[in-house]
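Hi D.,

Good news: the full-assembly prediction came through. Inputs first.
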Amino acid sequence: MTHDAGFWVLQALNALQLSMLLFLLSVGLTVIFGLMHFVNLAHGALYALGAYVAASVAGAWGGFWVGLIVAPIAVAAMGVVLYGGLIRRMRRSGPMAQVLVTFGLIFALLDLTRIIWGDVALASDVPALLEGQVRLLGVDYPAYRLFVIGLGLAVLAVLAFVLGRTQIGAMIRAGVDNDAMAACLGIDVERLFFVVFCVGCALAGLAGAVAAPLLSVTPDMGLQILIPVLIVIVIGGLGSLKGAIAGALIYGVVQTFGAVLAPQLSSVLIYALLALVLVTRPTGLFPAKG
Amino acid sequence: MLETRNLDKSFGAIHVTRDVSLKLERGERRVILGPNGAGKTTLFNQLTGEIAPSSGRIILDGADVTALPVAQRARAGLSRSYQKNTLFDGLSVADNLGLAAMVAQGRGMGLGRDGLLHPEVRETVEEVAAQLRLSDHLDARVSEISYGMRRQLEVGVALATRPKVILMDEPTSGVGPEMAKGFHDLLAALPRDLTLLIIEHDIDLAFAVADTITVLNYGEVVFDGLPEAARGSSLLKEIYLGSWEDA
Amino acid sequence: MFRHTPLRVAALALLAVAGIGYAFGASYFGLEILTEIAILAILVLALDMVAGFGGMVSLAHGALAGVGAYGYAMLQAQAGVAPPIALLGAIGLTGALAWAIGAVCARSHGIYFIMATLAFGQMAYSYIFETPVFGGDDGLGGISRLDLSVLGLDLMDSRNFALFCLAMVALAYAACAFVLRSGLGRSLSGVHESEQRMRALGLTVWRVKAHVFGLSGMIAGLSGALAAQHIMYVSPGLLSWTVSGEALVVVILGGLGTLVGPLVGAAFFVVLKHEVGAITPYWHLVTGLVLIAVVMSRANGIFGALEAWVGRRRAARQPQPLAKEVPGNA
Ligand SMILES: Nc1ncnc2c1ncn2[C@@H]1O[C@H](COP(=O)(O)OP(=O)(O)OP(=O)(O)O)[C@@H](O)[C@H]1O
Ligand SMILES: [Mg+2]
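Then the structure:
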C-alpha cells in the first residue's frame, strides 16, 4: 500500500474529528460516573434526542445555528426531568439497579423518539457558512468537520479550565475524590450532582446536534453510539477527564487507521484493545481516585 | 514453621514494615502487640500474600512462599481471621463454616454431589460450631446474629480449614469482657501443635496465651522475647502508657 | 446459595404442567410462542447461573448463544456433520469460548466486568459479521433440525419441536441446579459473597469463575443451537448486544438468583412482547417502563417478590423467624 503524505493527514483529521465527537459524549458520562458512581446507559439516547431536536429546529425554523443552541437546552431540560423522576431516587441503589433502570430508559426513549419523529431517517444540512472545503496542511478538508474538531477542542479547553481553575471545579474534583469528605467540607453534594448531571446531558445534546449533519438521524443512533462511548470511558478509566480524552483519541485513531491499514481486522481491533486494557489495567488507563 | 526475613513494605513515602524478621516454631503461640498504625495488619497481609512486600522473604513450613499467591499459601496450611469481619454475610453460620471446610478439604472445585453435604465437611462444621458455642445458631444468617458471635465466627471460619498456622487479627476487638474470656478458653483448648500468631490489644489476654511476644512500633520490631521479659521492658511501657500500668 | 424450597418445587411443577398442557392445546402460532419462550428460558437460566449466583453480570450471553447457533449451522449445514454431533459440537465450542472469556474477565468487577463481557460479545459479532464464510449480513440457511424418528418423533412438526424444546429447558434447569449444588457451585456462591475470604481459604477464584462461566456458556450454546434449528436460519443479529441486554432484563423481571424466576420472566417477557406488539409497534416503550418499575420497586422480580411475600407470611406465623431463603441472597 502506498499513500502520500496528504492521505495520512486526511486520515489523521478524520481520526481527530471522530475522537472529538466521542469526547463530547464521553466526558459528560464519565464525570457523572466519577461524581455519582452512576452509569447512565441512556446517555446515548439523550444524544439521539439532541440530534432530533437540532434537525427539527434547523428544518422548521432558524437553521443549523439555532438548532445547535436549542438542542443542548432541550436535552438538559430532559435531564432535569430524569434527575427529578428517576436518578435522584436511584442514587442509593447499587450499580446493577442503576444500569438496569437506565437500560429501561433506553428502551423508553427509543420508542418515544419513534413516536414523535417516526421511523424514517431525518436529514440535516451543513450550515451555509461551513459548506465546502478548506485547504489545510496540503489537503482539502470539509470545513464542517474542521468545525467539529474546533468545537471539541474548545469544549475541552473550557472544561479543563472550569475543572482545574474555578471553585466549582475544585468542588467537583473533591466530590470525585471522596464525596463523603466533600459533604463534610460543606459542599452541597446533591446540588453539585444535579448541576453536573444537567451539564453532562447538555453536552450529549450538543454532540447530537453536531453529529446530525454528519450522520443520518435515526432512532437507533443512540444505541449505535453507546458502545463506542462506553469503550472510550472504560479504556480511559471511568470518572476522569484525562481518561475521556485519551480514550476518545485512542478510539478515533484505532478505528480510522485500523480501517485503512488492516481492513479485515478493523472491526475486531478496538474490542481486542479494550479486552487488552481490561486485562492489564482492570480500571482503565487513567482511573479517577476514590 | 513460619519465618520472615528482613521484611520491608512501603506505601509510597510511608514505611509501614521495617526489616521485620520473625521465627515461629511449630506449636508456638505468639502475640503481637503494638499501638494503632504500627503495621500489624500490614504484616499479616504480607504473610498471607494479600500484599506483596517491597523486599524480604517469607518462609512457611520450610518453603519460600514469598512469591506464592494467597490461595496457594492457604492450601499450604496458613489461615487467618480479619480485624474487620470478612464473612459471607448473606449465608447462614453453617454455610460460612461449611464453605471454609469444603474449600480446605479440596472439594471446592468438584462437580457432583453437594459440596456442603459431604460428611467430612459437616463433621468439621459441627466441631467448630461446638468449639465456638455457635451450635444453636447454625441456621441463622450472619446478619441475624450478634456482633460478638460474628466475631467468633470470623475466627471459626479460619479454624474450619484445619490449618497448621493461624493468624488472628484482634479477634476480641469490640466484644464484651465475658466473650473475651470465653475466647481465651477457646484458645487454650486449641491443639498444641497449631502455630498461633495473634494481634491483640488486650494485655491480660495477651499474657495469658502467649508463649512469646513481639512488639511492633512504627513498623519495627522493638521487642521479641518471652512474656516475663516483656513485662520488665520500659519500651513497652512507653508505647502502651496507661493500659500498661493497669496490667 | 442455591436450594430447592417447597415454593420453588411447586413453581417448577406448575410451570411444567402449564408448558406441557399448552403444548398439547395450542395452535401453530401458540406453539411458536411456546418454542420462543423455551429457547429464551434456556438462555436466561445460563445467565442467572453466572449473574445471580456469581455476580458475573454478563453482556456476552446473547453473543454466546449466537456462537452456538452459528456453530450448529456451520457444522450441520455447511460441513454436513450429523445433527446430534453438530449439536454437541456447538455446545462444546461455545463452552470453550465462554471459559476463555470467563478466565480473562475474572479479575474485572462491577461495571468493568459488564463492559469486558460486552467487548468480547461484540468481538464475536464483528468477527462473524465480517468473515465471508459466515455469510455476512445474509446469514446462513439450509439448517435442519435434529432427527428423532427413532423415537417416532418428527421435529419438523411444531408441536413435537416445542415439546422437544421444553424437554431441553428441563435438562438445562437440571444442569444448572446440579452445577450450583456441587462444590464448584457452592464455591461460586462464596465468591459472590466475598472473593477475598474465599481466596484466603485457599480457593483459586479465577478458576471457579472460568469453569462456571464455561458451563453457563455451554447452556447458552444449547439455546443458540435450538434457535438455529427453530428458524432454520442464522444471521448476525443473533449475536447483537441487545439480545444480551434483553436476557438480562428477563432475569431481572423474573428474579435474579432464583433460577426459577428467570423461567417465569421468559414466559412473561415473550407473552408481553407479543401481546403489546399486537396492539402497538412501540412495545419497547412498555418493556422499558415495566423494567424501570420493577427495578424501582426494589423487589427481586416477579418470583423474588413472591418468595419474599411467602417468607413474610411464614415469619408472621412462626414465633422464631429463621427464613433460610431470602431473595437476592439465594
Ligand atoms: N494500602 C495502604 N496504603 C497506604 N497506607 C497504608 C495502606 N495500608 C495501611 N497503610 C498505613 O500503614 C500503617 C499501618 O497500618 P496497619 O493497618 O498495618 O496498622 P495496625 O498496626 O494494624 O493498626 P490497628 O491497631 O489500628 O489495626 C497505617 O499508618 C496505615 O495508614
Ligand atoms: Mg490492624
